[in-house]
Amino acid sequence: MKTTDHLGRPIVAVTGIGVVTSLGQGLDANWAALTSGQSGIHPITRFPTDHLATTISGTVDFLPSSKEGASALTQELADLSSDEAVGMSGIARGRFDGPLFLASPPVELGWQDRLSLYASSSEEQGYPRLLKVAREKLTAEIFDVAQFATIADRLADKYGTRGLPITLSTACASGATAIQLGVEAIRRGECERALAVGADGSATAEALIRFSLLSALSTANEAPTKASKPFSKDRDGFVMAEGGAALVLESLESAMRRGAKVLGILRGCGEKADDFHRTRSKPDGSPAIGAIRAALDDAGLGDDGIAYVNAHGTSTPENDKMEHLSLATVFGDNLKRMPVSSNKSMIGHTLSAAGAIEAVFSLMTMREGVLPPTINYDNPDPAIDLDVVPNAKRSADVRTVLSNSFGFGGQNTCLVMAREAF
Amino acid sequence: MSANDVVITGIGLVSCLGEGAQAHWSILSAGDAKPVYDAERFAPYTIHPLPQMDWSQQIPKRGDQRQMETWQRLGTYTAGLALTDAGIKDDEALCASMDMVVAAGGGERDVSVDEAILEASRSRNDHELLLNEKLTTELRPTLFLAQLSNLLAGNISIVHKVTGSSRTFMGEEGAGVSAIETAAARIRSGQSTHVLVGGAFQTEHPDMLLGYELGGYLHRKRWKSVWQRGANDGGGVVTGSGGAFLVLESRAHAEARGRKAYARIDAVASGRARREGNDLATAVSGLLRSLPDFVATELVISGASGAHAATAAERQALREQGSHAVRAFSTLTGHIKEAQFPFAIALAALALSNEAAYPPFDAENEAAASAPPARAVATAIGYNRFEGAAVLARA
Prior knowledge:
The structure holds two protein chains of two kinds. By secondary structure, chain A is an alpha/beta fold. Chain A has two domains: about 10-105 and about 145-420, Peroxisomal Thiolase, Chain A, domain 1 (3-Layer(aba) Sandwich); about 110-145, no CATH class. Chain A has helices spanning about 25-35, 70-90, 110-120, 125-135, 140-145, 150-160, 175-185, 205-215, 250-255, 285-300, 315-330, 345, 355-370, and strands at about 10-20, 25, 40-45, 55, 100-105, 165-170, 195-200, 245-250, 265-270, 310, 340, 370, 395, 400-405, 410-420. In chain A, strands 1, 2, 5, 6, 7, 8, 9, 10, 11, 14 and 15 form an eleven-stranded mixed β-sheet that branches. Chain A has a two-stranded antiparallel ribbon with strand order 3-4. In chain A, strands 12-13 form a two-stranded antiparallel sheet. In chain A, helix 11 links the parallel strand 10 and strand 11 (about 340). The longest helix of chain A has 20 residues, at about 70-90. Chain B is α/β, with parallel strands linked by helices. In chain B, about 35% of the residues lie in helices and about 20% in strands. Chain B is built from 15 helices and 14 strands. Chain B has helices at about 20-30, 60-65, 70-85, 90-95, 110-120, 125-140, 140-145, 150-160, 170-190, 205-215, 250-255, 280-290, 310-320, 330-335, 340-355, and strands spanning about 5-15, 20, 40, 45-50, 100-105, 165-170, 195-200, 240, 240-250, 265-270, 300, 325-330, 375-380, 385-395. In chain B, strand 11, helix 13 and strand 12 form a beta-alpha-beta unit. The N and C termini of chain B lie close together (about 10 Å). At the A-B interface, helix 3, helix 4, helix 5, helix 6 and strand 6 of A face helix 5, helix 6, helix 7, helix 8 and strand 6 of B. Strand 6 of chain A pairs antiparallel with strand 6 of chain B, so a sheet runs across the interface.
């Protein structure tokens, strides 16, 4: 079997996947819920919602660290999904021996810690008091939680990844970027395998309020499971959510040599930054179009090469319109034959984790021959002419998937996956 | 020499010493460079402040400036200096195809909102309600974007039109090490032809100091050089505001557009040795020895932070590996966190292109150079975790 691609580079296989979302922990629970059109969106109970415009989310509330703050939960989400993925790959935990790329939210010192530091002294006021407490008391544990590199360092210890782990953020495209970095490292011949993880447990009151202030969130609080409605005419913003996913990326040659089960092929990655605005995309869609085209080129496929699109599909007025425009521009008439669905209709927008979670679901779509639906598609937007796999799953023979990730700050990253090498 | 050699064709620098590659070379090579610091504003901590900045020199639109706080302005400004230096700034096609890797922390929080909440928390027990009340009414929407790590890169795309690709690595010195390592690997393998890489850090904000001091890392007594800070003076780190961006190119790409390079990056090494225990010096030695021909390298631009364990280990490792002219620039600029490694690389490149070593920055602790350097090593041994080093040669 050929183990290099159309450009002579090592073909990159996926040999392990793991996932946690508001729908549950693990691949089986998630896939069953996702294909039955179940929503994981619910009223927020983690913190009081008085004064908040949005009171719903897709938080992960069933883990031991669900109430321990963004850093602790993000770590648990990354760890659980890595554990499932590495376990599935057959590589010994603790001897992964490839680089780690972690997409995670930018962590800051949380309010829980800020307030407890403040309460521990009565001298000085404001930040001078926090600094005084930091100077005079033992605060090493809180220090560790607020360092960007802590989670990746701990994962590196546990899984025995190689070298300096990279923690990255490309906003809502982060999960896809982590995968792209792994693919590139394998193609450069630096390693035979890489662990790409996206995790986000940052649905705190402050994070929710910040997104609210940008008018990015749905306020359909009355019916939480109906709030995320990508491609619908009455869509009114995304639903903030949490989750984690991990992929073991491995050169096809290495996977075959050790007899590992190949779950799919990471065939191409494309990227293009937007220079238009901090939160809005260029009206002509050219950066998203550029990113999709770059991914197709990288995968060696034409505009007839994609069978299904796992959309970014956030349910914001702007994203869904722009995503449709870019897909229509790139695929032309082919788009009529291409189903396009959004997992976010069920799990909400998992932010830094979204690209990795949706890559895992894309691989499952091909393996199982089942398209997960776009739920809550009751009021189609006539301006968006897409087969969104409305409301119910559908069987389909899917050989290739395009997965889109677009984020604040002009980040656009697209992945092309294939069921098998060809 | 190879077409895919990684060469540096643009340098942007800002520190308390001034702005621009040439200004830094002039000041640092003159031999009497004095640190610029402020021991009052954040006492008992000393910081190295930004020089007077005219942001509009690199960020002409007031609207763009208003969307950022100082950290993002500083990074965007410094990136502009590097692009200008490389002759790319006004070349739309080159910017549109240029890749970018930014090493970033987070942006500045709103001090007055935070302090109002902290103070109000003393007289109430319903802290979660308090947060909702204050944050919903007092946070400025634009501030969220000014805090997001990847929005430094986002602003560089908007202001300078660098849009080939955009990746942000987070996490102290290691982010800067990985940014340089990844950018160089992409060029060497042909995945990129030209990359903008670097970072910025704005320390004049109490939350940024808190980020170090929760770990007990800040020096708390009168200013001393990096090598002289004692354990009874605090944690050893004196921070500085600054930025460092580089334009890295393949040799073929630089030559095709007729650009002269400052220097060539031959290898980058990185690691994650534990700070506790006695093995750190051994690990740093191993890191340095993994660079080709380290022993014969004349000049070492050290990113030592002053943090006791990491700085002592680096010093010991360097001594064991021969007699180099070691220059710890943070004595003069302060520790610039995510930008530390790019800054070290920039100073190494300037010495190579000028064919001269810097005079000692601390004459008691740094030896004079014996010869003009043909090679130079840049280091960043993280104050808390992760380390990296690179070897550069004349272009």
